[in-house]
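Example for tutorial group B:
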């Protein structure tokens, strides 16, 4: 008895344990990353497979199609849930807003170890032959018992990435290379010796072939995938139904149209695959030399590289087949493939922390953080410099799709869905049509049964009403506007690799701009220098190439502290460095390969002054010789270079003057950073005020510093020393002032954007005050606006993080001359307490990258408030630009990003509409690329986006009306057991609908941006009112015509003997129609109701086409669309002709009957009245009254600050309120988060922060995790 009780208890416990396991089974892959997904384990279930097989057979294959379209249903229908450890199939779901499902089969691979970076014991004995693929076979031949030593490694592949089972984490994980948790010291000490052949083969099992394989699918595979699209399946069903109902012509037309659509789609998709394959395949397979652990040099194919291999970089350069970290030597690399900027970049070897006793500490290697030491896949190594006997070596850290280039290709191969809201509304639109079709389906069945129609006819006609309601040309019609917009963009020099984003660009309401090269000229002019002597600034000097400064340390720093190099004899590099070097008039010489081979060290780059710097040298031959000797003897060799880092905001070089024993360190960079690394006694007391003086005027200021190095630092020690050991205790030398002029078109473009209520934000790596000055100069910040600087400080010495608020000094107000521009279409608050005048003073936040990072970490609740009015973000690192774009998107802004493609790649990809000003068309870093480096492309892109978006809405509305008009006609005719004829359907669907749809999409964009934005979705008040009103109008006039014709004195049930026109005698009629009696009796197409409805409905299609083809303010008026006007005029003329001047041939072809001429005139009156009512309803009632009154606010909510109104305006507002109440549009909370937040801040007395106050953050409590913010005065 006791045993039974214990047994039952154990079963209960097991049941609860299983329940708990199910609850805790929710696991993730790529946790906290962009591609984070939920993962569930399943195993095949035999009885479910049997049931599904039976279901597929019984449904005629439809269930199989349904399971093909829905992967989650497929897995759940054929498998049962199990643990991830034992699963055979995994089900994946993205955690973003799209929640997309994927499934993958789990495979098993025999291996000697569980991790590729471990060294299993038996590897030395069993992998010596290198044939790791045949592990199982060779083991079975030698000893069956040895199979037990192999570990079954389980993995699956998703989007070209392998996920291996991680037993310690009890989940699947990506096997990463040496870029994950590898210390810089271990890269030199453990991984720099290379791999044995056996270890190489073992790792290759896990990492696979090193290639970015873009497989071009066969035409057959693409065809099957395209044909199995739900829409084409529905078309197939429709065609079969029409053929059964003997609608042969229309069925054939739809088949031809579908074939054309499929062929064009296949051609486009395959062309994109081929282009991407060719781009990736170029130089992807090359022969490379690797260094094995026994110091042997082996030549292998690049496809055989694995993380851990030591690759030798050839002196004449190569295309990198992988991501590798430089261990020795220096490389000059063109990274335009990744960044879009063709400026050569110097890569130096990764420092070894273990060699520096004074090093700050070891750190984990990261390709982004250590990108100055990393050679990325796909980049072009132009040339190398090296020690003799110590070749340029690089450690392979990532291969295949894990590389930077691989990730870019994956983002193209597997893009995230875009414009989700628009397509979600499209599905709701189709669903509503299906509901309407269902009503018609039921009505047809009931009506047919009551009229005792044969069952065969009932089935066909009831299904036919469904095919009539869902238009077959909808997908082609929807893409037409985007395709035309893409062509227009290409004509104006804007290239697009993601056409679906064109629609999103029509909704942009905020654009971020980089400053240098985007808002301002790319080139900088040297305005002058301010040298420092004895910790005091000297007067500004314009000439820097004077003889008195020739041997000064200031000029030596300008001559050496740069990353310039000669490529094919031409000096190239960063534009700022070029301008600075050209200003001093020096010459740069680089060592040749022969010179380098003669010395046992890296031959330095040498700089020296040119002879032209000595004008006195022309006076006498002796003096000329002496000065020539002087100029040749004074040379400076650049021994070591620490390239510029956007994170550190500085660069440094170690140089030696010819003949000097001690070396010198020169440093340049952001003034604030350089001053902090200098001895305080060398920095002038008025440093900040002088810097502020120049930055306020919009100058680009660079600081220089110098330091004499210790004599014990030898050449070889310098090559391996840490830059932190050099960049300290420097002597401050002064400032270089560069003038960065605004581009001529910048102010006008920003003014256009402001007038269109599009916010503009500056994101730059430059100084904050310089950025604020440029923002004021270009009109981003108006003269009367306030600028609040947020200076955030991280926690230190037990003190919490805090933000110091202070107001930047505004420039002199010139309100009389400043243009009346609304710089932000969001609610604003008066900064001043004075309400005497109605002028609204707006405020803008400005902050630097360090403050932004602190706010993101310690003041998360303040981030939405700050980005709501943040206008200037200075000293921003590349990843911080991306974080800013994300922060803006989190408050429901549609964000555009415009940059030069260098440091903006992440932000360009993340933004809704990223446009690069790079000249390289092949750049894959941005959805849009402008051929001309001008921000004038931004309003052009937004205008085309708005035009494409409105075109999409117009097409949707027209296709909805087309379906409903035809649905009304057929439903009315079904009531008398009639229908439209085959040729009538053909004329409507091909001659009217297709021609109109493809020509109405040709309207070009409106010539300027307007303040009103298009609706953000299909399901919005204006669109629904427009569609419903036109549906009601068409229903009323068709029903009126249908009923009125029956009231005519000549009306009777039409027979071949009927003669309402009195033009034929009975004999002629009888003979003319004797051959068609059977056909007419069967389908009852020829009757007065059919003829009346055919004429009225045909005109209605054209009426709604004209009504919906709106022009201003987003598109050019329809009368400028020549093809559309021509098509509509021709169709109108044809319809008027066949209605008012009947032709026996046309009437016979269209199966029309003769009606009295008086009735034809009455139909004409019905059509004219219908047109007048439709135009008045759309253009007067909706556009002029309801849009401006009820729908005056955009769906995103454009609420403005309420200001006292004059009496007449008060009366108008009362009318507005009444109509809003009448239509149910009361004051509602806006849906956009930024608008809702703006409304809250209007009534917040503590916002914006007052000047000279501090906001302090406390540690978040464990309960709610929110940050407590205290404001201190």
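The residue assignment follows.
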């Amino acid at each position: 008895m006791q045993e039974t009780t214990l047994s039952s208890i154990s079963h209960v416990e097991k049941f609860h344990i299983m329940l708990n396991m199910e609850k805790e089974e929710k696991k993730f892959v790529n946790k906290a990353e962009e591609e984070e997904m939920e993962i569930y384990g399943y195993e095949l279930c035999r009885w479910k497979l049997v049931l599904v097989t039976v279901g597929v057979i019984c449904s005629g294959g439809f269930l199989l199609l349904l399971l093909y379209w829905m992967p989650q249903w497929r897995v759940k229908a054929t498998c049962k849930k199990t643990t991830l450890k034992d699963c055979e199939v995994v089900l994946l779901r993205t955690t973003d807003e799209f929640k997309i499902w994927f499934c993958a089969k789990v495979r098993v691979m025999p291996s000697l170890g569980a991790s590729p970076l471990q060294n299993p014991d038996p590897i030395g004995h069993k992998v010596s032959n290198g044939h790791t693929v045949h592990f199982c076979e060779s083991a079975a031949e030698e000893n069956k018992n040895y199979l037990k030593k192999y570990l079954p490694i389980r993995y699956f592949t998703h989007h070209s990435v392998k996920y291996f089972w991680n037993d310690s984490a009890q989940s699947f994980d990506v096997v990463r290379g040496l870029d994950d948790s590898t210390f810089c010291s271990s890269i030199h000490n453990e991984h720099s010796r290379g791999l044995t052949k056996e270890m190489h083969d073992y790792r290759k099992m896990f990492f696979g072939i090193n290639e970015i394989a873009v497989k071009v699918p066969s035409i057959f595979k693409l065809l099957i995938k395209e044909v199995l699209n739900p829409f084409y399946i529905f078309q197939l069903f429709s065609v079969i139904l029409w053929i059964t109902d003997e609608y042969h012509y229309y069925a054939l037309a739809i088949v031809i149209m579908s074939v054309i659509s499929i062929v064009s789609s296949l051609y486009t998709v395959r062309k994109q695959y081929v282009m991407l394959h060719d781009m990736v395949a170029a130089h992807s397979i090359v022969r490379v030399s690797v260094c094995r652990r026994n110091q042997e040099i082996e030549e292998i194919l690049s496809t055989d590289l694995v993380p851990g291999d030591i690759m030798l970089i050839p002196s004449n350069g190569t295309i990198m087949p992988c991501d590798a970290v430089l261990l020795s030597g220096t490389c000059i690399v063109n990274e335009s493939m990744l960044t879009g900027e063709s400026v050569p970049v110097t890569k130096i070897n990764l420092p070894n922390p273990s060699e520096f006793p004074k090093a700050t500490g070891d750190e984990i290697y990261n390709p982004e953080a250590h990108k100055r030491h990393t050679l990325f896949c796909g980049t072009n190594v132009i040339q190398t410099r090296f020690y003799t006997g110590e070749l340029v070596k690089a450690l392979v850290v990532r291969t295949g799709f894990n590389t930077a280039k691989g990730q870019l290709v994956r983002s193209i191969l597997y893009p995230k869905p875009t414009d989700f809201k628009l397509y979600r509304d499209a599905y709701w639109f189709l669903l509503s049509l299906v509901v309407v079709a269902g009503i018609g389906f039921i009505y047809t069945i009931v009506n047919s049964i009551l009229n005792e129609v044969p069952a065969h006819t009932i089935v066909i006609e009831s299904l036919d009403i469904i095919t009539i309601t869902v238009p077959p040309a909808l997908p082609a019609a929807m893409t037409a506007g985007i395709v035309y917009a893409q062509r227009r963009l290409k004509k104006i020099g804007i290239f697009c690799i993601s056409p679906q984003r064109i629609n999103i660009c029509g909704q942009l309401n905020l654009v971020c701009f980089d400053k240098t090269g985007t808002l301002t000229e790319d080139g900088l002019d040297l305005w002058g220098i301010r040298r420092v002597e004895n910790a005091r600034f000297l007067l500004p000097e314009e000439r820097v190439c004077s003889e008195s400064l020739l041997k000064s340390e200031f000029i030596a720093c300008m001559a050496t502290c740069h990353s310039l190099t000669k490529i094919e004899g031409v000096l190239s590099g960063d534009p700022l460095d070029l301008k600075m070097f050209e200003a001093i008039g020096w010459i740069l010489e680089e060592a040749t390969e022969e010179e380098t081979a003669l010395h046992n060290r890296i031959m330095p780059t040498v700089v020296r002054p040119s002879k032209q710097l000595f004008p006195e040298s022309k006076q006498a031959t002796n003096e000329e010789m002496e000065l020539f000797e002087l100029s040749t003897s004074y040379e400076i060799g650049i021994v070591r270079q620490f390239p510029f880092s956007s994170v550190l905001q500085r660069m440094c070089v170690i140089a030696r003057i010819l003949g000097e024993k001690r070396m010198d360190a020169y440093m340049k960079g952001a003034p604030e950073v350089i001053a902090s690394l200098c001895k305080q006694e060398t920095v002038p007391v008025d440093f900040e005020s002088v810097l502020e003086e120049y930055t306020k005027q919009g100058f680009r200021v660079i600081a220089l510093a110098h330091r004499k190095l210790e004599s014990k630092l030898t050449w070889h020690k310098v090559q391996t020393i840490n830059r932190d050991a050099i960049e300290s205790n420097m002597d401050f030398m002064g400032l270089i002032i560069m003038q960065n002029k605004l581009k001529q078109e910048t102010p006008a473009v920003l003014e256009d954007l402001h007038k269109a209520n599009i916010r503009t934000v500056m994101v730059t790596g430059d100084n904050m005050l310089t950025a604020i000055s440029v923002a004021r100069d270009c009109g981003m910040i108006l003269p009367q606006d306030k600028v609040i600087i947020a200076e955030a400080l991280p926690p230190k010495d037990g003190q919490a993080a805090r933000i110091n608020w202070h107001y930047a000094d505004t420039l002199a107000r010139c309100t009389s001359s400043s243009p009346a521009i609304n710089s932000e279409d969001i609610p604003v608050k008066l900064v001043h307490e004075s309400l005497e005048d109605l002028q609204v003073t707006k405020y803008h936040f400005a902050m630097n990258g360090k403050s932004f990072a602190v706010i993101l970490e310690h003041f998360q609740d303040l981030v939405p408030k700050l980005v709501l009015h943040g206008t200037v973000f200075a000293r921003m690192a590349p990843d911080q630009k991306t974080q800013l774009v994300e922060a803006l998107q989190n408050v429901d802004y549609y964000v555009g990003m415009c940059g030069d493609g260098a440091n903006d790649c992440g932000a360009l990809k993340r933004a809704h509409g990223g446009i690069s000003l790079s000249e390289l068309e092949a750049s894959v870093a941005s959805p849009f690329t402008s051929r001309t480096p001008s921000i004038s492309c931004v309003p052009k892109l937004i205008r085309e986006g708005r035009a494409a978006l409105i075109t999409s809405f117009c097409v949707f509305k027209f296709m909805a009306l087309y379906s409903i008009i035809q649905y009304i006609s057929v439903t009315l005719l079904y009531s008398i057991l009639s229908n439209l004829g085959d040729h009538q359907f053909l004329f409507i669907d091909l001659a009217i609908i297709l021609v109109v749809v493809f020509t109405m999409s040709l309207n070009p964009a409106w010539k300027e941006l307007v303040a009103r934005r298009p609706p953000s979705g299909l399901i919005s008040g204006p669109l629904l009112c427009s569609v419903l009103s036109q549906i009601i109008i068409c229903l009323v006039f068709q029903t009126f015509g249908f009923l009125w014709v029956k009231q005519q004195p000549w009306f009777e049930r039409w027979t071949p003997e009927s003669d309402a026109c009195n033009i034929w005698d009975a004999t002629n009629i009888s003979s003319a129609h004797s051959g068609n009696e059977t056909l007419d009796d069967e389908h009852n197409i020829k009757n007065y109701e059919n003829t009346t409805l055919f004429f009225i409905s045909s005109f209605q299609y054209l009426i709604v086409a004209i009504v919906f083809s709106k022009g201003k303010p987003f598109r050019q008026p329809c009368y400028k669309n020549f093809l559309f006007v021509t098509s509509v005029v021709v169709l109108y003329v044809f319809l008027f002709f066949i209605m008012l001047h009947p032709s026996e041939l046309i009437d016979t072809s269209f199966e029309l009957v003769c009606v009295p001429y008086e009735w034809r005139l009455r139909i004409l009156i019905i059509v004219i009245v219908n047109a007048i009512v439709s135009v008045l309803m759309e253009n007067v009632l909706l556009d002029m009254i309801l849009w401006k009154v009820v729908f005056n606010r955009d769906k995103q909510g454009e609420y403005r600050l309420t200001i006292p109104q004059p009496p007449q305006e008060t009366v108008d507002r009362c009318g507005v309120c009444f109509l809003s109440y009448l239509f149910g549009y009361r004051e509602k909370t806006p849906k956009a988060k930024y608008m809702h937040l703006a409304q809250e801040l209007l009534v917040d007395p503590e916002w914006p922060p007052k000047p000279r106050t501090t906001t302090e953050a406390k540690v978040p409590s464990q309960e709610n995790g929110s940050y407590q913010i205290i404001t201190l005065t």
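Residues 362 and 532 are 36 Å apart (CA to CA). Compare this with the pattern of hydrophobic and polar residues in the output above.
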